[in-house]
Amino acid sequence: MIAVVGGTGVIGGAIVAALRAAGEEILVTTSSTELAARSGYRWADMLQPRTLPDAIAGADVVVQSANFASYPIERRRRVQTFMAFDGVGTEHLVEAA
Fold first, then answer.
1. Residue 88 per-residue DSSP state
2. How far is CA 20 from CA 17, 32, 43, in A?
3. 53 three-state secondary structure
4. DSSP structural state of residue 31
5. Tens of pLDDT along 21-66?
6. What is the pLDDT of residue 3?
7. Nearest alpha-carbon partner for 97 in 43, 63, 53
8. Which helix (H) or strand (E) holds 32?
9. CA 46, 47, 51: angle at the middle one, nearest 5?
10. Under 8 Å between Cβ of 6 and 67
11. Distance (Å, rounded) from C-alpha 36 to C-alpha 54?
12. Cα dihedral 97→37→67→55 (10° resolution)
């Protein structure tokens, strides 16, 4: 199974579509609790490392395509920055995998 973290975004969504078209089993992680209630989706928050292990459990491959909601405009007070997601968040994801 392939977990696509950020699989509901523009780039992540295209990755998910291509992998599904190729017949791959996909798990999409999302920060949306509404979407996470659907089959094939799990909730995770890149800024909360404790949420990542359960979100990607069972995956053989993890693709990181997550970004912050205000991308490309950083909002430091909301911790929506490149460093928080692309830097620290990705480090947490690698540790969880």
1. I
2. 5, 21, 20
3. helix
4. S
5. 999 999 999 999 999 999 999 999 989 999 999 999 999 999 999 9
6. 98
7. 53
8. none
9. 65
10. yes
11. 12
12. -10
Which structure tokens are listed for 29? 């992680």
Which residues have C-beta within 8 Å of that of residue 12, sequence separation ≥ 6? 4, 5, 6, 28, 63, 65, 66
Specify the residue for token string 């920055």: 81
Structure tokens at 3: 């977990």
- The tokens of 62 are what? 């993890």
CA-nearest of 22, 18, 28 to 62 is: 28
Structure tokens at 67: 């970004």
Q: Where is pLDDT greater, at 17 or 78?
A: 17
Q: By the 8 A CB rule, do 18 and 32 touch? A: no
- What tokens were used for 80? 């929506």
**What are the tokens at 41?**
């989706």
